[in-house]
């Protein structure tokens, strides 16, 4: 699978939500996309996932416009005010909802077993806002990857929860190693701390993504 964002820009009622930005990511690749706060992280994620129509440019799935295909194959993870869970709920309740969305068993025992298998059962009764940031991100990525048909993940601003960037970078890397196409949107500060090649919101020319599967290494 390949997603190609071609100079996509989005206009809002009071000005641009996203300046024209390009990106290309394939199966087994990880792209880091950095930008200052307010430059359109969520808008970019929604456009990449086929949930928001660009004002300019287009998003191609395997070389063709296919918003429906993007919605079926791309999971947008923890986007503020879009897909982020309700902070007042317990972790167990949040995971029950996420597992149901992934068409997995979601009763109390199933949730407890899932959390145990993912080394997080001790947090089951904790309000979601109080779950350690690295645990929160890891679990949301894991459960999103279980949704039927999902081949790509877009993780939106995991650094806003306060954990150091290397924690969520490890989670994103592991998802790419399993063969998913992964995009992480973060701040410029986080990108500098990671010291990896990053794309930038508002740029049309971007660096190569990081490849984690042999198929994609051969392709490049």
Q: What features would you highlight for this structure?
A:
8 helices, Rossmann fold, single chain, 25% strand, six-stranded mixed β-sheet, alpha/beta, 220 residues, four-stranded antiparallel β-sheet
Could you report the average pLDDT, rounded to the nearest whole number? Answer: 94
The secondary-structure element order is EEEHEEHEHHHEHEHEEH
- End-to-end span in angstroms? 14 Å
Largest sheet: 6 strands, mixed
CATH level 4 superfamily of the domain at 2-84 and 150-219 = P-loop containing nucleotide triphosphate hydrolases
* Structural class computed from helices and strand pairing: alpha/beta
- Helix count equals 8
Helical amount = 25-40%
Which radius of gyration do the C-alpha atoms yield? 17 Å
CATH class of the domain at 2-84 and 150-219: Alpha Beta
CATH architecture of the domain at 2-84 and 150-219: 3-Layer(aba) Sandwich
> What are the low-pLDDT stretches, counting only 5+ consecutive residues below 50?
215-220
Description:
By secondary structure, this protein is of the alpha/beta class. The chain has a domain at 2-84 and 150-219: P-loop containing nucleotide triphosphate hydrolases (Rossmann fold). Helix content is 34%, strand content 25%. Helix 3 (91-101) crosses helix 4 (108-117) and helix 5 runs parallel beside helix 6.
Task: Note the topology.
Elements: E1 2-12, E2 15-26, E3 29-34, H1 41-48, E4 56-61, E5 64-65, H2 67-73, E6 74-77, H3 91-101, H4 108-117, H5 133-145, E7 152-156, H6 165-177, E8 181-186, H7 188-194, E9 199-200, E10 210-211, H8 214-219
């Amino acid at each position: 699978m390949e997603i190609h964002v071609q100079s996509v820009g989005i206009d809002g009622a009071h000005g641009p939500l996203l300046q024209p930005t390009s990106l290309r990511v394939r199966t087994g690749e990880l792209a880091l996309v950095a930008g200052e706060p307010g430059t359109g992280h969520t808008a970019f994620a929604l456009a990449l996932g086929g949930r928001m129509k660009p004002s300019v440019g287009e998003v191609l799935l395997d070389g063709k416009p296919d918003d429906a295909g993007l919605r079926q194959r791309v999971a947008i993870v923890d986007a503020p005010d879009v897909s982020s869970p309700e902070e007042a709920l317990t972790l167990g309740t949040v995971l029950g909802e996420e597992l149901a969305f992934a068409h997995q068993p979601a009763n109390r025992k199933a949730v407890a077993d899932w959390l145990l298998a993912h080394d997080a059962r001790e947090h089951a009764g904790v309000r979601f806002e109080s779950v350690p940031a690295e645990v929160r991100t890891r679990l949301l990525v894991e459960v999103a990857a279980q949704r039927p048909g999902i081949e790509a993940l877009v993780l939106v601003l995991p650094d806003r929860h306060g954990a150091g960037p290397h924690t969520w970078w490890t989670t994103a890397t592991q998802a790419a190693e399993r063969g998913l196409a992964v995009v992480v949107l973060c701040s410029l500060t986080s990108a500098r701390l990671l010291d990896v090649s990053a794309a930038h919101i508002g740029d049309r020319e971007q660096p190569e993504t990081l490849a984690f599967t042999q198929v994609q290494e051969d392709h490049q």
